[in-house]
């Protein structure tokens, strides 16, 4: 079965591809010739995932799933949330986003946070939503070289490592995207 993952992000694509069973042929937006950035104009993480999946279904008539992920930090009103990728500006600069978040947390005792991934599946024009949440906290300094985005400053609850200090397999087992992906895989296996 061919399935499009509506992303241009190769790090994210490889992370998801490693989780999928062999009977699913995963294609990226680049693989189907979709070179445009799909606008994320919804006010929620779930809404952005739906926009992207439906865009591919409508324009390319292919089964598709799309995700959107947000980091919600309690002490700063659940920012950056839906704006996680462009928290420090439109350029989607991970380093600038982390620096802004750490600055906004200066002097705050509560560093609790959670990653939330919403996956919208558009399969034969039927829409299904899957959610994965990983609770944790924001560290005071970046640690680790693995992963991407906020991974160097997010330490999942019950662990003494950030996502960026974990292997891809470890992160997938406990992380938000892995949780949502397992729900998607279970659904596709039925």
UniProtKB/TrEMBL annotation:
Co-factor binding comment: Binds 1 Mg(2+) ion per subunit.
Residues the record lists as binding substrate: 7-12, 69, 148-151, 171, 176-177
Active-site residue list: 68
Catalytic activity: XTP + H2O = XMP + diphosphate + H(+); dITP + H2O = dIMP + diphosphate + H(+); ITP + H2O = IMP + diphosphate + H(+)
Broadest EC class assigned to this enzyme: hydrolase
Keywords from the named record: Hydrolase, Magnesium, Metal-binding, Nucleotide metabolism, Nucleotide-binding
Keyword Ligase on entry: no
Cofactor: Mg(2+)
Stored SUPFAM superfamilies: ITPase-like
Assigned EC number: 3.6.1.66
Top-level taxon in the UniProt lineage: Bacteria
Residues reported in the UniProt entry to bind Mg(2+): 39, 68
Pfam families listed in its UniProt record: Ham1p_like
Subunit and partners: Homodimer.
Family label: Belongs to the HAM1 NTPase family.
Family matches, as NCBIfam families: PRK14823.1, RdgB/HAM1 family non-canonical purine NTP pyrophosphatase
HAMAP family: Non_canon_purine_NTPase
Function: Pyrophosphatase that catalyzes the hydrolysis of nucleoside triphosphates to their monophosphate derivatives, with a high preference for the non-canonical purine nucleotides XTP (xanthosine triphosphate), dITP (deoxyinosine triphosphate) and ITP. Seems to function as a house-cleaning enzyme that removes non-canonical purine nucleotides from the nucleotide pool, thus preventing their incorporation into DNA/RNA and avoiding chromosomal lesions.
Designated name of the protein: dITP/XTP pyrophosphatase
Protein's organism: Aequorivita echinoideorum
């Amino acid at each position: 079965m061919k399935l499009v993952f509506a992303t241009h992000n190769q790090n994210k694509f490889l992370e998801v591809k490693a989780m999928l069973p062999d009977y699913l042929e995963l294609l990226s937006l680049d693989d189907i010739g979709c070179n445009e950035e799909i606008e994320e104009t919804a006010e929620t993480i779930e809404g952005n995932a739906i926009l992207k999946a439906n865009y591919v279904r409508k324009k390319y008539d292919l089964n598709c799933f799309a995700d959107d992920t947000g980091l919600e930090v309690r002490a700063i009103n659940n920012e950056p949330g839906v704006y996680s990728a462009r928290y420090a500006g439109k350029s989607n600069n991970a380093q600038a986003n982390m620096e802004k978040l750490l600055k906004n947390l200066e002097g705050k005792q509560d560093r609790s946070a959670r990653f939330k991934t919403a996956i919208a599946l558009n399969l034969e024009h039927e829409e299904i939503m899957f959610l994965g949440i990983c609770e944790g906290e924001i560290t005071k300094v970046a640690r680790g070289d693995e992963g991407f985005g906020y991974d160097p400053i997010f330490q999942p609850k019950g662990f003494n490592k950030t996502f960026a200090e974990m292997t891809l397999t470890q992160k997938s087992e406990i992380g938000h995207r892995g949780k949502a992906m397992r729900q998607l895989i279970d659904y596709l296996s039925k």
